[in-house]
Structure to design on (560 residues):
């Protein structure tokens, strides 16, 4: 009994830990911290070019040193600093895009679900098309027309991104519309707008939060793909996607240039997805089929 | 100005404008575009001065073979993984498949392609790094492209299969004494597949997205890379025609999926 006490403690602690997505939250917290305090934390400026120190390997390899922790790229820029600053790009793009998409999607979905009829029909056919259409193509098209910039990326991710929100919210509203409390609100003379905002909206916040968390990963991935293809955030601003692309042809010689940023993408997206899953199971298990 | 040298005179510019039809009003230009595109004439590529339809036509077969083989591979592998995970629910096999699916959804696919090139082409030297040619050129692009749809499909098949395996008629089929193989692959799968059709329609879009990325990484001469190149070169007629083409194909595939519903599930009638 005494012998396995220690292990039992650890197992119990581990089980407790597993009930909460501690690791994903920790990773996301670190990334948000990096993004906010990037200029204080990062050892170098992300755009500082030092040709004498180009292609320095990370510290644990021969020839590497702790002055460039994760090595340098083909222009001698510090990979770690660029990853830290890249967190800013990924996070700001996803925050802005998700804010825009959820706002548009919620408003359209609420109106369509509440009014029904022609507008609803029209909007749902439109979302069908928007859901099926590859977002990357629209992004490429807009990238070609407006040229790559932060705003182009945000715009092109938002053009179709509202569709899942509209679809989901509409479904919820159609269910809620028939509830007694809505009928009662109408009886005491509330206007449609008041019913939607004051009575129905609080009931869809759960769904909304779940959708928003679950789309963080997706937005970061698409932004990375766009930057990888060269139509995302324009250089020299460090974006994880374009960093992977920079190191692409040097992979055999200097794998660290593209490996570390892609690990950053992978960990952040994974954490976002796991956190989203957890919130969904907690708040709204009906969304399971998503 | 992409077509004129810096020292071009006003007359030259005017001539280029007239040649491109840019001196007409916007509605007029749009009308010409509509009229010509219905005849299959998408104008001339700015980059290499060839008809857009020819530029696309040369590249299209490469993308179709790549895309179709990736879709076939993706569907068969995800069917196998999803069904296995559902049948072995709760075992290490199930967790393994779940892990692959979760990781696959999080890792950027272009990175997977780069790593695959580094391992199999550069270090081991088994497969060519890029371009087209013999069947060995297909291995890496097809594998990595199918990974665009694999995680989502596997997850969906698993959950849909779990639901079906729990139903009364599966129980009946087992009571009748049918072998487990027939119960799973014939009775259960047929019903589990229905919700997947919609997903397949939507994942087709992700294959298109994937084609752009994968063809760029593997220097595959298909329309995906053409798209990425044309965007960077600002070759608007090509981009325009490609987006139109892809939009039509995606919508057709989704229509086809809806029609197949009625075929797979006779209860659905339109």
């Amino acid at each position: 009994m005494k012998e396995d006490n220690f292990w039992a403690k650890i197992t119990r602690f581990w089980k407790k830990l597993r009930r909460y997505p501690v690791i994903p939250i920790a990773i996301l917290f670190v990334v948000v911290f990096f993004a906010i305090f990037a200029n204080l934390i990062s050892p170098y400026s992300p755009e500082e070019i030092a040709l004498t120190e180009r292609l320095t390997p990370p510290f644990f390899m021969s020839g590497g040193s702790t002055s460039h922790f994760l090595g340098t790229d083909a222009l001698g820029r510090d990979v770690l600093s660029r990853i830290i600053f890249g967190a800013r790009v990924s996070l700001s793009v996803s925050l802005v895009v998700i804010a825009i998409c959820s706002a548009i999607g919620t408003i359209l979905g609420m109106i369509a679900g509440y009014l029904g009829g022609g507008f609803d029909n029209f909007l749902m056919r439109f979302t069908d098309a928007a859901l099926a259409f590859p977002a990357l193509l629209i992004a490429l098209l807009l990238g070609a027309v407006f040229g790559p910039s932060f705003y182009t990326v945000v715009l092109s991710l938002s053009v179709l991104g509202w569709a899942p929100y509209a679809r989901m919210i509409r479904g919820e509203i159609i269910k809620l519309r028939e509830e007694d409390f809505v009928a009662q609100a109408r009886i005491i003379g509330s206007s449609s707008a008041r019913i939607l905002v004051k009575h129905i909206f609080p009931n869809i916040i759960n769904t909304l939060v779940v959708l928003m968390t679950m789309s963080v990963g997706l937005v970061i991935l698409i932004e990375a793909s766009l930057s990888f293809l060269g139509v995302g955030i324009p250089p020299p601003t460090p974006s994880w996607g374009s960093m992977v692309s920079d190191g692409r042809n040097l992979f055999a010689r200097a794998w660290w240039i593209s490996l570390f940023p892609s690990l950053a993408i992978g960990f952040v997206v994974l954490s976002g997805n796991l956190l989203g899953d957890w919130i969904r199971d907690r708040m709204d298990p009906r969304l399971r089929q998503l | 100005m992409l077509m004129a040298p810096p020292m071009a005179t006003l007359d030259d510019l005017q001539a280029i404008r007239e040649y491109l039809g840019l001196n007409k009003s916007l509605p007029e230009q749009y009308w010409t575009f509509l009229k010509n595109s219905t005849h299959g004439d998408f104008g001339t590529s700015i980059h290499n001065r060839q008809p857009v339809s020819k530029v696309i036509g040369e590249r299209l077969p490469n993308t179709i073979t790549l895309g179709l083989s990736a879709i076939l591979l993706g569907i068969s592998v995800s069917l196998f993984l999803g069904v296995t995970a559902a049948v072995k629910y709760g075992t290490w096999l199930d967790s393994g498949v779940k892990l692959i699916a979760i990781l696959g959804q999080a890792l950027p696919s272009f990175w997977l392609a780069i790593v695959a090139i580094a391992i199999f082409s550069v270090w081991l030297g088994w497969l060519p790094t890029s371009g087209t040619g013999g069947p060995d050129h297909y291995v890496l692009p097809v594998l990595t492209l199918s990974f665009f749809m694999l995680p989502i499909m596997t997850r969906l098949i698993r959950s849909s299969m779990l639901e079906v395996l729990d139903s009364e008629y599966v129980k009946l089929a087992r009571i009748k004494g049918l072998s487990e193989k027939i119960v799973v692959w014939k009775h259960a799968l047929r019903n589990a597949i229905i919700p997947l059709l919609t997903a397949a329609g939507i994942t087709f879009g992700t294959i298109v997205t994937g084609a752009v990325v994968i063809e760029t990484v593997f220097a595959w001469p298909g329309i995906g890379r053409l798209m990425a190149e044309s965007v960077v070169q600002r070759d608007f007629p090509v981009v325009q025609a490609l987006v139109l083409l892809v939009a039509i194909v995606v919508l057709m595939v989704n229509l086809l999926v809806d029609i197949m519903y009625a075929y797979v599930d006779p209860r659905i009638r339109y």
In short: The mean pLDDT of chain B is 74. Residues 87 and 162 of chain B are 8 Å apart (CA to CA). Chain B is about 75% helix and 0% strand. The longest helix of chain B spans residues 52-87.
